[in-house]
Design brief:
alpha+beta; 2 domains; 9% strand; flat
């Protein structure tokens, strides 16, 4: 194998066979690690441990779900017992929890909901190898969204699926594929697929004598293919080039540089009062009146955090969802 592959890189390699993680870490990654550790420590602790801080709701949810999934069985969350030796991979992985009696492995995830099926498939394969089993369940626990995705794997399915990703990632014919993980990759800045796609975004606006905004739009709208191509390429150029350049422009202006056609303006902050004034203004009124005066609603995350901080069992039946909306989502092209 020409490069080292760990289970956690499999979801990225499934999207781009040439993905390699960039060095360093981020505040989001550090938070994720801290939440993982807190949940695992609470599960393994012999005594109850108080949950405090802004991530209390997410941590409480993770503990609650791992406990529920265990159905009274022992859950292993100690890191030294969670090494995942996956056949075909050169690097060990580390799951967040394993319950051998219930035949499942689990991983805690913070931040955006992403597809971690390939990572959990590899963990399941390692568990089946270790325990001489022919099937295994994997759970991804998204603590920020208070949701779970579960997968059932047979031994052959997990082995073949993991090997397919490995084969693709180690093939001499592997080519880069722009995807949602590009900015995490060490090849990002010089990746020919990204650079070519960004250049193509500009080229998609054709030059013609007597051009007009309407004429340009009409040419882009002339076929579904040209419309889809323009939006795809332009969104990449906007994210990878325009947005970072806007950040640099603001930094230059803040440092006193002059940039023709641009200046910084000051926008007044929103006016507000703090808890002391609220407490004084709410003397003599009911809790219901105060709650309604402050909007009458909480997000699901804030509600779960409130319950966790006050030791109250959340009422899951009270959690409602707004009307669905439609969103544009880019699909893979083969």
């Amino acid at each position: 194998m020409s490069k080292e592959i760990s289970p956690s890189t499999l979801p990225k390699l499934a999207e781009c066979a040439l993905f390699e993680g960039a060095s360093g870490t981020s505040a989001a990654a550090e938070r994720g690690t801290a939440v993982d550790i807190a949940i695992r420590n609470l599960i393994s602790a012999e005594n109850d441990v108080a949950i405090v801080g802004e991530d209390a709701g997410a941590i409480a949810y993770g503990v609650e779900e791992l406990t529920r999934l265990a159905k009274g069985s022992f859950v292993e969350t100690r890191e030294e017992y969670l090494a995942m030796a996956v056949p075909g991979l050169s690097k060990l992985g580390t799951a967040d929890a394993v319950c051998k009696e219930q035949k499942w492995v689990a991983d805690i995830k913070t931040g955006q909901v992403r597809d971690y099926r390939n990572q959990l498939m590899a963990y399941s394969l390692a568990c089946m190898e270790d325990n001489f089993e022919t099937s295994w369940t994997a759970h991804v626990i998204y603590v920020d969204q208070a949701m779970i995705r579960s997968y059932e794997f047979t031994y052959e399915e997990a082995k073949q699926g993991t090997q397919r990703t490995i084969d693709r990632a180690t093939s001499a014919d592997a080519k880069p594929t722009p995807c949602e993980y590009c900015s995490w990759c060490k090849h990002y800045n010089n990746c020919n697929a990204i650079v070519r796609q960004a250049e193509s975004a500009i080229a998609l606006i054709p030059e013609a004598t007597g051009n007009s905004i309407e004429a340009i739009k009409d040419r882009i709208l002339s076929t579904p293919e040209s419309l889809g191509a323009f939006i795809r390429e332009w969104k990449l150029a906007e994210k990878e080039i325009a947005e970072p350049l806007l950040g640099h422009l603001k930094t230059r202006l803040e440092s006193g540089d002059e940039v023709a056609g641009w200046k910084l303006t000051s926008v007044s902050g929103r006016r507000f009062v703090e808890h002391e004034a609220i407490a004084k203004a709410s003397e003599g009124i009911s809790k219901e009146t105060l709650i309604l005066a402050m909007g009458g609603k909480l997000s699901e995350k804030s509600y779960l955090e409130l319950c966790a901080n006050n030791g109250v069992e959340p009422d899951q039946t009270a959690i409602k969802a707004g009307s669905p909306t439609t969103q544009l989502r880019q699909t893979k092209t083969k």
